[in-house]
Each structure stands twice: as C-alpha cells, then as structure tokens.
Amino acid sequence: MMGRYHRHSLARAHRRCCVRFGHTHVLCSLSPQRYGYFPATCHVGPHWGCLLVTYFLALGPFVFLLLFVNELRLGLQVALFASMCVTTVSLTLVACSDPGVVFQDVDSDVEDGESAIVCAQCEVRRPFDASHCSDCGVCIRELDHHCPWTGKCIGKRTIKLFYVFLTCISLHCMLVGAACLVTFAAT
Question: Which regions span the lipid bilayer (predicted)?
Fold first, then answer.
C-alpha cells in the first residue's frame, strides 16, 4: 500500500510543493532530481517541532548575551555572530536536505546489478544498505540514526553535514561559555 503511495507522490513531487513521503514532507523542490540539498530542496522530517527547539537552544544564549550584556567586546560580538551564523546554516542544511530517502519509481534507487529487497513496512524496493525508519516512515540509504533534534533521519546524504553541525554547535557553545566567563570575570 505504501509503495503505491510513494510512486504517486514522486510523480507529484516534480510538479508541485508539499509532497508527503511516509511521515516526511518535501516542502519545495527546485531541483530536477528527485532528491537534493537545501536550498534546492526543502525536505523536513516528522519532528520539526523539536527542530524549532534546537534552533532556540542554539541561538538563545547568543541573543541573551547581546541583549543583556553591555560590556561585550566588539571582537567577541563578531566572533559570536559568525559562530551563530555558521551553526544556523549547518543545522538548516542537515534539517532540510534529503537524508537519502529510497524512492520507488521507474528509475529506482537500486542500481543495475545491485542486490535489493522489498521493505515490509513501506513496500519499496530498496538496496541492502538501506533501512526503514519507523519515525520517518521511509527507507533511508545508510541510515545512521533518527535524530529528533534535527527533526529527521541522518543518512547517506546528510551524515557529513551532521558532523559539521556537531562541530559548529560545539564550538559555538564553547565560544558562548568563554564570552560569559570573560564578561562576568571583568565585572
């Protein structure tokens, strides 16, 4: 049943926005391909509410520092702003790019000569390196994990972006912490 739904949805995805695959949504696709990276494709997962919380947690401390700390040095403000921008962009790239959804259509994601199985949950013919995510309701190539903080699965097409985001958010947190220490130690 789900396999027929995927085929119908894929045909519509090339013509218009807001197409549903499993529990995920392709909000827009400017790419002629069936998948892509943000901003050519905006593909969000089922936990978009948690993604909004992630944005708030990443941006909140920076905004707090700018609004309530008057003694913040200009160089530190610039570094914090740059860090916040890079973190926001990396989170958006992970959260809005296609993680590697296996679509069933005439040009199947399974290449010639590659072994495949039919997924029992979504009835999609998928390669052996793909796994079904029950949260997203689709099969994902090289599924690493389902991350509610990014709102979707981390798979073949988003794993490197995810590591970039983890690095950026870690550095951003350290920079915000250092700014707090420097500012409050000076007072």
Answer: 48-68, 74-96, 161-186
Query: How far apart (Å, rounded) are the C-alpha atoms in residues 157 and 37?
Result: 8
Is 14 contained in some domain? no
Show which residues are catalytic: 147
Establish if 140 belongs to a structural domain.
yes
- Taking only the tens place, the pLDDT of each residue in 20-48 is 778 887 877 765 555 676 767 788 889 98
Give the residue numbers spanning the domain of 177. Answer: 47-186
Is the separation of the CB atoms in 24 and 137 below 8 Å? yes
At 62, the amino acid letter reads: F
Domain membership flag for residue 151: yes
Whole-number Å distance between alpha carbons of 45 and 135: 9
- In order of 10, 38, 57, 75, 184, the CA distances from 25 in angstroms are 11, 13, 24, 41, 45
SS3 128: coil
Question: What's the Cα-to-Cα distance from 161 to each of 37, 86, 100, rounded to whole Å?
Answer: 10, 12, 13
0.85 cut: is pTM over it?
A: no
User: How far is residue 182's CA from residue 74's CA, in Å, rounded to a whole number?
Assistant: 13
CA–CA dist 2, 4 (Å, integer): 5
Residue 162 has, within 13 A of its CA and on its CB side, a CA count of 20
